[in-house]
UniProtKB/TrEMBL annotation:
InterPro entries recorded: Virul_fac_BrkB (IPR017039)
Keywords from the UniProt entry: Cell membrane, Membrane, Transmembrane, Transmembrane helix
A Pfam cross-reference name: Virul_fac_BrkB
Protein name: YihY/virulence factor BrkB family protein
Length: 284
C-alpha cells in the first residue's frame, strides 16, 4: 500500500471518529474546563509556593502558562491572574486552597474524558483512583512550577558566574525571555507526554503517542498564529462583548487548542488501528 493511501486512510479514520464521537462538543467541554481550572490551579500553586518560601512564584507562573499564548490573548488575562495571585492568603492548608486543588483536578478529568474517547477506551478504574491521580497531576505540576520559579530567580546569578568563568558562552546564553519561552515549551511537551501515557485507560508505548504530540505542537503553533492574525486584522471582540472580550477570546482560543489536542489523540488511535489491521493482513 502506498504511503499516500495509508495517510489518507489514517486521516479519514481520525477525522471521522472525531466527528462521530462528538469531538466538537468535547472540545467545548475541555476548553471551559481548562479555563475554570486555570485560576484554581494557580491559586493552589501560589499558596504552596508561599508555604515553601518561593515568594516570586506568581510572576514566573504567569510566564510559564502564558508565554506560549498569542500576546493578544495572554496580556489581558495575565493581568487578571497576577491581581488574583498577589492577594495575601493566610495559610496553605485552608478550605479554599483545598477546594482550589479539587477544582483544578476537574481540568485533568476533562483531559481524561477527551482522551478516553479519542483512544476508543472504556474507563475501568474506580472514581477514587482517577481523582487521586488527577490531584497527583495537579500537585506534581505545582511542584514543578515551584522548582522552575526558584531556578529562574537564581538564573541571572548563575549566568553571571558562568560568564565570569567561560566568557565564550555569552553568545549562547540568550535572554531571560528566551529561556522562559524555552522552559514553557518544554513544560508543554512533558505535560502532553504525561497525559497521553497515563490519563486514558489502557497502556500505550511512547512511540504510540509521538505522532499525536507532534501534531498537537504543530497545530498549536499554526492555530495560535492564525487566530492572532485574525484578532489583529478582522475581529473586534471589544465592540461585540465589551468587558467580556478577553474571556471570550480566551474561550475561543482554548476551544481551538482543545480540538487540536483531541485530534492528536485521534491520530494516535487511528495509526495504531491501521498498523494492527495491516499486521493481521500480513499474518494471513
Amino acid at each position: 500500500m502506498c504511503a499516500l493511501s495509508a495517510i489518507r486512510r489514517i486521516l479519514y479514520d481520525a477525522l471521522g471518529h472525531f466527528n462521530d464521537d462528538d469531538g466538537w462538543s468535547m472540545s467545548s467541554h475541555l476548553a471551559i474546563s481548562a479555563l475554570m481550572a486555570l485560576f484554581p490551579f494557580l491559586i493552589f500553586a501560589t499558596a504552596l509556593a508561599s508555604f515553601l518560601g518561593a515568594q516570586a512564584f506568581a510572576d514566573t507562573a504567569v510566564h510559564l502558562v502564558f508565554d506560549t499564548w498569542p500576546v493578544q490573548i495572554a496580556e489581558p488575562i495575565s493581568r487578571e491572574v497576577v491581581s488574583v495571585l498577589t492577594v495575601p492568603r493566610s495559610g496553605f492548608l485552608t478550605i479554599g486552597v483545598i477546594l482550589a486543588a479539587y477544582f483544578a483536578s476537574n481540568g485533568v478529568e476533562a483531559l481524561r474524558a477527551s482522551l478516553n474517547r479519542a483512544y476508543r477506551t472504556v474507563e475501568t478504574r474506580s472514581i477514587i483512583h482517577r481523582r487521586i491521580q488527577s490531584l497527583a497531576f495537579v500537585f506534581i505540576a505545582t511542584v514543578g512550577f515551584v522548582v522552575i520559579s526558584v531556578l529562574l530567580v537564581f538564573a541571572p546569578l548563575i549566568a553571571r558566574i558562568l560568564l565570569s568563568q567561560f566568557s565564550w558562552i555569552e553568545d549562547y546564553m540568550g535572554t531571560i525571555t528566551v529561556w522562559r519561552f524555552a522552559i514553557a515549551s518544554l513544560v508543554i511537551v512533558l505535560g502532553l507526554v504525561a497525559v497521553h501515557l497515563w490519563l486514558p485507560d489502557g497502556r500505550r508505548r511512547f512511540a504510540d503517542i509521538v505522532p499525536g504530540i507532534i501534531f498537537t505542537l504543530i497545530g498549536w503553533l499554526i492555530g495560535s498564529t492564525v487566530f492572532a492574525l485574525y484578532l489583529d486584522r478582522f475581529a473586534n471582540y471589544v465592540n461585540t462583548y465589551a468587558g467580556l472580550a478577553s474571556i471570550m477570546i480566551a474561550i475561543v482560543f482554548l476551544y481551538i487548542v482543545s480540538a487540536i489536542f483531541i485530534l492528536g489523540g485521534e491520530l494516535n488511535a487511528s495509526i495504531r488501528r491501521f498498523l494492527e489491521a495491516r499486521a493481521r493482513i500480513g499474518d494471513r
